[in-house]
Design brief:
Helix content of chain B: over 70%
Largest sheet of chain B: none
Strand order of the largest sheet of chain A: 1-2
CATH class of the largest domain in chain B: Mainly Alpha
CATH topology of the largest domain in chain A: MetI-like fold
Largest interface: A-B, 96 and 95 residues
Number of helices of chain A: 13
Number of domains of chain B: 2
Number of strands of chain B: 0
CATH architecture of the largest domain in chain B: Orthogonal Bundle
CATH superfamily of the largest domain in chain A: MetI-like
Oligomer: heterodimer
Shape of chain B: flat
Strand content of chain B: under 5%
């Protein structure tokens, strides 16, 4: 008996060997840098002269730095609208492609999914052309409704141009998640609901949405994480302009750190970035969890 | 009186019109990228808009490789291929070993360590670029392939995906091999890995797509022109003074092609990669 349990423990300990390389690399290249961002945020450092401990100075400065506040608000605006639009559209598309009236479902879905596999830099290049004053979008808008904003030089329109590109690029990814979630809902639930006289909206509200609770939580949380860190679209199309109207946090970190050599300050912005994302993710998971019934 | 069938066929018509419009919106920018890359520079933004080029300017695809001495695109493509291949291989190694370890062994601290690995999903490049750059510099691997490959190979999504896969795999196969006296690493390599073929292929595609398109990390860690990767090359090329449009679009099409082709032939695995990471947490 003793001998058997000894060998079982020894067997289970092989698990450590299997996870060791991954743990090591994750610790060195992800967890250590994250902790080190927290530490660096208390220093002033340009990488050349020795670093100087300045306490909370970076955070105090951040709270009054209009440039950082601006990019924080821009990031929340971009992320808030994008995450809502992406998830609502992705869910609607998933329902649409689930319709029994529709054929060639795979074909239609793959069209919506196509932007997901395109290079994001290439996507930025082509959308910038389409947004230019003699580009496709303004020309068509002027033909149809008579007016079009000057998308990329207007501080009001440019942020929405970024959101459009991002939603277009990402919605297919989340659609796939929702389609898989919908397939997992037992058909018998819908049959029971129909017998009880529930129409389309009734079924949606009482069957589909509650059954998809976990799927929605995971889709929204991962969407927040990806969207908050969005960088390429703004970098390629507007470089943060016009008048910093699209200067999101990731661009700000790049500028403060790698263009202005304020590595301590850039770390403080990273900490703000990380904590915001953490708080959002925790709130969302809590919200969804509290409503979960059973397992 | 309108029959039920007529109502349904009207509904069907509206549905198809709507879905076709939707498909058009999602397909069009890629189509526009391709046709515009085949126009002459003066025609790209000309009014009235012409949908198809006249004449067809195939030369932009040659020019982009030959006319710009500061932008060695063949080299950038090669760099991207090397970095993507190596980062994907390393990611496969980490994800398969750790996923198997977490799924098949009940050692002390399993749950805690797995939770820590999962939590790193929140540590994106944007949150750690500054300290990661400092670390990579201290290790002497900034401006090298390794400086790109190692950080780009780490993804908790991969570990999570393979852990879920191995978890669902019955232990019977492993047990019978153990009784035959095979050691744990042989069992993993000979039995575990071959059974995970589908999951591994899905991970290859999922991860390759991510690495191939990364921009921020290469921008920061690579300053040596000959080591630039393709997205970085395109972004800098576009920022250049007086860069002709068709050439920008041509190189953009080239950057999209590998993944579009993969997607056409292996779309099943793209979808699997997403559903296996996004679901069943």
């Amino acid at each position: 008996m003793r001998k058997a349990s000894y060998s079982v423990t020894r067997l289970q300990n092989h698990g450590y060997v299997f996870i060791l390389p991954t743990l090591l690399f994750f610790a060195v290249f992800l967890i250590y840098p994250m902790l080190s961002a927290f530490r660096l945020s208390f220093y002033e450092w340009n990488l050349l002269s020795p670093k100087q401990f300045v306490g909370l100075k970076n955070f105090v400065r951040m709270a009054t730095d209009s440039r950082v506040i601006n990019s924080y608000v821009r990031t929340l605006h971009f992320s808030g609208i994008s995450v809502a639009a992406i998830n609502i559209l992705a869910f609607a598309f998933a329902l649409l492609f689930g319709s029994r009236l529709l054929q060639w479902k795979n074909f239609w879905q793959s069209l919506v999914f196509l932007p997901v596999v395109l290079s994001i830099v290439a996507v930025g290049v082509v959308w910038e052309f389409m947004f230019q004053s003699t580009g496709l979008i303004p020309v068509i808008l002027r033909k149809i409704i008579g007016v079009s904003p000057v998308w990329l030089t207007n501080t009001k329109a440019a942020p929405y141009a970024m959101i459009m590109v991002y939603v277009w690029k990402s919605v297919g990814y989340y659609m796939v998640i929702y389609i898989a979630g919908l397939l997992d809902v037992p058909v018998s639930y819908y049959e029971a609901a129909r017998i009880d006289g529930a129409g389309f909206w009734g079924q949606l509200w009482y069957i589909t949405l509650p059954s998809l609770r976990n799927t929605i939580a995971l889709a929204v949380v991962s969407c927040v994480i990806f969207t908050f860190g969005q960088f390429s679209i703004q970098y390629v199309i507007t470089k943060g302009g016009p008048s910093r109207s699209t200067e999101i946090l990731s661009l700000q970190i790049l500028r403060q750190g790698f263009e202005l050599s304020k590595f301590g300050y850039a770390s403080a912005i990273s900490v703000l970035f990380f904590l915001t994302m953490l708080v959002f993710s925790l709130i969302q998971l809590r919200l969804f969890k509290s409503g979960t019934v059973g397992a | 009186m309108i029959s039920y069938r007529t109502v349904e066929s009207w509904q069907r018509l509206i549905l198809y019109v709507f879905v076709a419009a939707l498909g058009f919106v999602f397909l069009f920018p890629f189509f526009w990228m391709i046709v515009s890359s085949l126009k002459l520079n003066k025609d790209v933004l000309a009014i009235p808009i012409r949908f198809f080029p006249s004449p067809w300017n195939w030369k932009s695809y040659v020019n982009v490789f030959t006319m710009f001495p500061d932008f060695n695109f063949p080299r950038f493509i090669l760099n991207s291929v090397i970095v993507t291949a190596a980062a994907v291989l390393l990611c496969l190694f980490f994800s398969a070993t750790a996923g198997y370890g977490f799924a098949k062994f009940r050692f002390k601290g399993n749950n805690l360590l797995f939770t820590i690995v999962l939590a790193t999903i929140m540590i994106t490049f944007e949150a750690i670029v500054v300290p990661l750059y400092i670390l990579v510099r201290q290790l002497g691997i900034s401006n090298t392939y390794w400086g790109l490959i190692i950080p780009e190979s780490l993804t908790a999504f991969g570990v999570f995906m393979l852990r879920q896969f191995f978890y669902a795999l019955p232990d019977d196969f492993l047990e019978s091999a153990r009784i035959d006296g095979a050691n744990e690493y042989v069992i993993f390599a000979r039995i575990g890995l071959p059974m995970a073929k589908t999951a591994l292929l899905a991970l290859v595609i999922f991860h390759a797509q991510w690495v191939w398109n990364l921009l921020l990390w290469p921008m920061i860690t690579i300053s040596e022109p000959s080591l630039r990767v393709l997205p970085q090359g395109i972004a800098l090329f576009k920022g250049g003074y007086n860069t002709p449009y068709p050439e920008q679009l041509a190189v953009s099409v080239i950057a999209c092609l590998p993944l579009v082709l993969l997607y056409i032939f292996l779309s099943k695995y793209f979808v699997q990669g997403i559903t296996m990471t996004g679901l069943k947490g």
